[in-house]
């Protein structure tokens, strides 16, 4: 059961994210554009690796060499990837890091924060987070370009949510 307690100087939030909540929050925070950029980058890398082999094997004066393994590799890459791209994109969007689904206790104060999960506990200071965003159902505290701490709003009552919002405004850029 989610719980939040607030003392005079710290806010303690206990929660467990569901896979659906985590998936929705990650999609809202990172967006699908990032996944598409990564997949396009891999496509271009593969194309650039196959293209020199295909061009090097091109010798029009020798018709018996029109079909070479390098050209077949390039052709397979050009045909298969546009088919695989949407499938991989959808599957990647369904992945949720297991760490996000563990029971979590987050304690926030002016001096720093602690995060306790089933297999991990850590303490840190505010500069560890680079920014924060308020999403529809969560507060997202960014630790790095690809790492985020999610705190669901359902674990907070309205006064605690406002206290958390004020604390985040004081400690981190928006």
Can you characterise this structure?
This protein is an alpha+beta fold and 174 residues long. Helix content is 45%, strand content 25%. It is built from 3 helices and 8 strands. A 5-stranded antiparallel β-sheet has the order 1-2-3-4-5, with helices on one face. Strands 6-7-8 form a 3-stranded antiparallel β-sheet, with helices on one face. A hairpin with a 3-residue loop joins strand 6 (131-134) and strand 7. Helix 1 (19-56) runs antiparallel to helix 2. The mean pLDDT is 80.
Number of helices: 3
* Anisotropy-based shape: elongated
Q: What is the helix/strand order?
A: EEHHEEEEEEH
Structural class: alpha+beta
**Which runs of at least 5 residues are low in confidence (pLDDT < 50)?**
none
Strand order of the largest sheet: 1-2-3-4-5
Number of strands: 8
Main pleated sheet: 5 strands, antiparallel
- Average pLDDT taken over every residue: 80
How is this fold's topology laid out?
Elements: E1 3-6, E2 10-15, H1 19-56, H2 69-94, E3 104-109, E4 113-117, E5 120-124, E6 131-134, E7 138-144, E8 147-152, H3 158-171
Overview features:
174 residues; alpha+beta
Question: What's a quick, concise take on this entry?
Answer:
The chain is of the alpha+beta class and 174 residues long. The protein has helices spanning 19-56, 69-94, 158-171, and strands at 3-6, 10-15, 104-109, 113-117, 120-124, 131-134, 138-144, 147-152.
